[in-house]
Design goal:
This protein has 103 residues and is α+β, with helices and mostly antiparallel strands. It contains five helices and two strands. The chain has a two-stranded antiparallel sheet. The chain is elongated, with a radius of gyration of 21 Å.
Length: 103
């Protein structure tokens, strides 16, 4: 998101508009909304876009999307489905389906 910053440049020129990009927000878990660790934040958005892929997010499955607790819960739900038990949390369903495809 960009903020508008107004600078006055003398009486004849009026106002000149400079666009200033804001800081990037802290990334949160998709399920429990906890703060994600290992994901850059705080710098300007243009600076975080210039980082390489490995610097933007962890290389683990669902890295940069889910926190460690939710990721382990998804792994448990996937194991339950593979063993034959059919108790599935509706919020976790899309992530379990993705993990089933990768296994």
């Amino acid at each position: 998101m960009q903020k508008k910053k107004y600078l006055k440049k003398g009486k004849s020129h009026g106002q000149k508009i400079n666009l200033v990009s804001g800081k990037s927000a802290k990334k949160t878990c998709a399920l429990c909304k906890a703060q994600l660790h290992g994901v850059p934040h705080g710098a300007k958005t243009s600076a975080t876009k210039k980082l390489s892929k490995t610097q933007k997010r962890p290389s683990a499955i669902f890295g940069g999307i889910l926190c460690n607790k939710c990721r382990s819960m998804i792994a448990e739900e996937t194991a339950k489905i593979l063993s034959g038990k059919e108790s599935l949390d509706l919020r976790a369903k899309p992530y379990v389906e993705i993990m089933l495809k990768s296994v």
